Amino acid sequence: MVTKTELCHFSEYKVYPGRGHRFVRKDGRTFFFLSRKTRSLHFQKVKTSDLTWTPMWRRKNRKGAYAKAARVRTKRTTRKMKAVVGMSLAEINRIRNQGTKERDEMRTKIKEEQKKKKAKQIEQRKAAQKGKKGKKDKAQFGKQQKQGKVRRAGF
After folding, report:
1. Does the keyword Ribonucleoprotein apply (predicted)?
2. Residue closest to 49 by CA, chosen among 16, 23, 12, 20
């Protein structure tokens, strides 16, 4: 069987059934006091944090179990690096630890390579177009039948 207990408004101690004193203010707010002592101190407007025997004072001054609960630390999760397909772990770490100068050099190298590739492609296209212009078939200038209309090809 569970006994219903309430907390004292002033001292925060448990008040068991048949004990304590309930006070109801004019505005309807109820206060439950453990003893005459707590009731008297409440009406004298004494702060609970100033009295060493109250849990409030113990919390404020970090005494007992309150201090122990604050010291609990959680473990931090550790990250593990894994190799990616096509790159080893050593390669990833090398790239990660590069300085800005090294990165800039790599960037300029890559850009130059891309420019060379593009220039090569353009040259190949020009060569292919020159080859096409030189060879003209007579068949291109013949008449072609397309959907009932006569059209000339090559224009």
Report:
1. yes
2. 12
